[in-house]
Amino acid sequence: MHGGPELRHHFEERLRAVGASRYHDKHPFHRAMHEGVLTREQIRGWVANRYYYQKNIPVKDAAILSHLPDREKRRRWITRIIDQDGSAEHEGGIESWLGLARAVGLSEAQVLAEVEVHPGTRFAVDAYVTLARTQPWVVAVASSLTELFAPDLMAHRIEVLATKYPWIDEHGLAYFRRRLTLAPRDAAYALSWVLEEATTLDLQDACVRALEFKCDVLWAVLDATMAAYGAGPTRQGRIG
């Protein structure tokens, strides 16, 4: 089966529907965050756990890079690694996340030691890296398309954290501000690659499953965080 315009449109609708039904903005922990009811310890627990995901983004992207079939795609994709790891001239996403950690009252050493990373977080993120290493490149790229759903969430998150958690130093929100521009840029070319290359129903199904899996990874990280710290004032966290 070769994908004509109607089939491509239907495939794109299937991908976008994954976000509508499975994106982690619907998770109870995330909803509690946006309601402004999380304790300081719970916010810190989320930042500490999410760091493990952040540090593995360039590892995942390097795995995908190694499978890309041509130079032009590799030139485009490698910018993701630089965006996250940074360079001699520019701070990357990982350093920005550490800035958020400092802004919520965590020490950088504490976060880097990963002592607060829940086993569920570690398992889910490691599984995502394994997918990137083992699946065909177009399927692995499709798993990254949660970026389609991120910009609106990021904009709202900035507003929520600034207004409902005023104890957080606003300079620590730089990571989310950067993603407002980077996520749409990255999602645009990744989506175009997936729509162009996934021209059989089997491959399209695999791409949809990969995106669902990525949503499950983000959901599992929040599951682990909520299991450890709760999601509201009735349950105190472990980080002092």
What does this structure look like?
72% of the residues lie in helices and 0% in strands. The protein is mostly helical. Helix 3 (40-65) runs antiparallel to helix 4 (71-85), helix 3 (40-65) runs parallel beside helix 7 and helix 7 (119-134) packs antiparallel against helix 11 (201-229).
Measured between the Cα atoms of the first and last residue, the distance is 57 Å
CATH topology: Heme Oxygenase, Chain A
String of helices and strands = HHHHHHHHHHH
CATH architecture: Up-down Bundle
Fraction in beta strands: under 5%
Number of strands: 0
Tell me, rounded to a whole number, the average pLDDT. Answer: 93
Radius of gyration: 18 Å
Short description:
With about 240 residues, the protein is mainly α. The chain contains 11 helices and no strands.
